[in-house]
């Protein structure tokens, strides 16, 4: 296989004594062929292509595609969509520049005994120490090191009260009218 492809690519490379580059053999007049060779040819023989040159130019097909293993953005979830955990501490974090606010977050010990910092979305919350919460992946861009979010309306963490839009993201029931 390899040798047959190498031989086929060697046939594509011009040899010494061929017609000048860019000129077909039938176009060259016999009078020009009888004259001594001038500037059209180099007197040194043309080097053969190396195997690496053939491989790079695509004359010989080599499968060069290598897929990189994707690094998980939420390694502490161990491939699970969510994990439950117990709140160790509720804290208020300051976002990085240029934002200014007080972001609510919690240190959570997951069911696999890993401790993570999880953001608590929405206005107000009832999370306190020893509350059981469900943690999902998803970083908060302006809080360094926070790669997880608590799921509102699940376990001990209540949904956001009086929420009208995007209720499913904040665990709010449909209001009865």
From TrEMBL:
CDD domains: Ribosomal_S12. GO terms for molecular function: structural constituent of ribosome. It comes from the Eukaryota. Keywords: Ribonucleoprotein, Ribosomal protein. One of its GO terms (biological process) is translation. Residues 164-177 have a biased composition (Basic residues). Residues 156-177 are annotated as: Disordered. GO terms for cellular component: small ribosomal subunit. The keyword Ribonucleoprotein applies. Signal peptide: none annotated. Pfam families: Ribosom_S12_S23. The keyword Ribosomal protein applies. InterPro entries: NA-bd_OB-fold, Ribosomal_uS12, Ribosomal_uS12_bac. PROSITE patterns: RIBOSOMAL_S12 (PS00055). NCBIfam families: rpsL_bact. Belongs to the universal ribosomal protein uS12 family. This is ARAD1C30272p.
